[in-house]
Design goal:
Layout lengths: L6 H17 L5 H10 L3 H25 L6 H18 L6 H29 L5 H29 L2 H20 L7
Helix pairs in contact: 1-5, 1-6, 1-7, 3-5, 4-5, 4-7
Length: about 190
Amino acid sequence: MVGTMKKALKVLFAINGVFVLGAHLLGPLYAVFVNQELGGTALIVSLSWAVFIISTLFFMLVAAKYGDRFKERELLLGMGFLIRAVCWGAYIFVTNIYGLLAVQVLLGLGEALGTPAFNALLAQHVNQKKAVREYSVWAIISRIAAAVATVVGGVVVTTIGFTPLFAIMMVLSIVAFIILIKQPRSLL
């Protein structure tokens, strides 16, 4: 299935696969983190997640207006990886709900830069005659990475806690960034 794809797609899938693996380590454990580590209620979990979604929306509006001015979309993707890495590292130091909300806003910025940039790069390299197949391959890879990460995240939190989980998430995002910037500009 992957054999006939452009090299650029294979590289994008690998890079973002590493990122998705890191991103989904937290998954449903976010609610557990807010409750156990910060004493948050179900309402606080919901409100803090809404802050992330709303900040993502706001920053995506800005990205929609100015994002195409960047000739190298991979730089926007890389900035998204780095901002989210910083946010996941910042979770380690969050001690109250206000700190959590600040991190959620910044996380929205990372999401708003990274996701549209990845989608634009993906669309640029998809073979239109095989578009459904190639988008399906990406969906399969990302779902496998997310499923594995969700289980691994539960094991990590159960055995050694949230701090190592956030550190692993941060490292995987940085690894995705490093792999991205090491690619020749002509490839992506």
